[in-house]
Write a structure and sequence with these properties.
Strand content: 35-45%
Low-confidence stretches: 1-22
Protein name: DUF3304 domain-containing protein
Number of strands: 8
InterPro entries: DUF3304
Keywords: Signal
Order of helices and strands: HEEEEEHEEE
Helix content: 10-25%
CATH class of the domain at 24-87 and 114-145: Mainly Beta
Signal peptide: 1-25
Pfam family, one: DUF3304
């Protein structure tokens, strides 16, 4: 009987702890759409990896997991960290000429740039949420959405085209 009571007390404490945790909306994967001519070598949302390399003008990701709070609050943000680099390997010289390969490798390495942005999460009140999709835009701009619609769906909230023109000089 003592074991039963102790077990019930422990279960009650565990249940109380779960009830005190903040309510979470439905979760899902961390995806991305790259609207730029640069490759996204890697990216993360609040420190959680988005997994895949995403080529220029492509989608990808698949990291696990992002859960939006059940209630959207004004001013909600996420931190996006990412690294860009050359997305085109047409100039790859092969491994036969070591000097040409090393020069190509230096060019690839010198093109890598680290970025970070704090991004507002759009209002999802009254909508189902499905993970998060990060949109990498020209001039190192970023948008996010928790929409369950896919990018090609007319109801998808981000309307920027996949191939966006990039200005010669980005506004400050």
């Amino acid at each position: 009987m003592k074991v039963f009571r102790a077990g019930m007390a422990l279960a009650g404490l565990m249940l109380a702890g779960c009830q005190q945790a903040p309510a979470q909306a439905a979760g899902g994967t961390i995806e991305a759409v790259n609207h730029t001519r640069w490759a996204i070598n890697h990216f993360s949302v609040n420190g959680q990896s988005g997994i895949d390399i995403i080529g220029p003008h492509q989608g990808g990701g698949g990291g696990c997991c992002f859960r939006a709070p059940a209630q959207w609050q004004p001013g909600m943000t996420v931190k996006i960290d990412w690294e860009t680099g050359i997305g085109d390997t047409d100039e790859f010289p092969g491994y036969g000429n070591r000097e040409a390969y090393l020069a190509w490798e230096r060019k690839i390495d010198s093109s890598r740039k680290k970025h970070s942005a704090i991004v507002l999460v759009p209002d999802y009140t009254g909508q189902k949420t499905c993970g998060i999709t990060v949109h990498f835009l020209p001039c190192d701009k970023v948008k996010v959405t928790t929409s369950c619609h896919i990018y090609s769906d007319p109801q998808y909230p981000v309307k920027e085209p996949l191939r966006m023109p990039e200005p010669q000089v980005c506004p400050k």
